[in-house]
Design a protein that fits this description.
mainly alpha, Exosome-assoc_fac/DNA_repair, protein-containing complex binding
Length: about 160
């Protein structure tokens, strides 16, 4: 008796899961695949979407075969699941590589911004034109010497 109740509870859980899955599948089937893929700009997003669809369909087929009592250990469905899994891993690796490049590019951009800001804000220790360029080139005239020269010229 307990075995029957356990099986009935599994069947009712499966039924609930299928009811929840139905709207999701209908949403996927509402537009043609080409339209859905064209709306995505990023190739990795497209690959993830295709992987999701492949995994969903393969998993549903696996569940169907399993419910029919077929041995799935050497079934082609297992090969298909392994293939989909490898594609999912490839997309994950590409995402991680892209994140690494984005992080590196972001850090380089930040370093460049810091250099530019420090140059524009005048945080240099030395002035743009050094004082040594002006030494010994300017002559100072005092008012007394210029007045004496003016009076001498006027007397002559």
């Amino acid at each position: 008796m307990e075995g029957i109740q356990t099986i009935q509870s599994f069947i009712s859980m499966l039924d609930k899961s299928l009811v929840e899955l139905t709207p999701e599948v209908q949403m996927l089937a509402s537009k043609p695949l080409e339209e859905q893929l064209q709306s995505m700009k990023d190739p990795l997003d497209r690959a993830e979407y295709l992987n999701t669809i492949s995994y969903t369909l393969t998993s549903l087929m696996f569940a169907y075969i399993k419910s029919k009592g077929v041995d799935t250990t050497n079934s082609p469905i297992m090969d298909e699941l392994a293939r989909v899994k490898s594609h999912v891993q490839k997309v994950k690796q590409c995402r991680e590589k892209q994140k690494g490049l984005d992080t590196q590019q972001h850090s380089q951009t930040e370093q460049t911004k810091k250099i530019i800001q420090s140059n524009l804000n005048g945080r240099h220790q030395e002035p743009a034109i050094s004082k040594s360029n002006f030494r010994g080139r300017h002559k100072r005239f005092s008012d007394e010497t210029s007045l004496k020269n003016d009076t001498k010229k006027a007397k002559q």
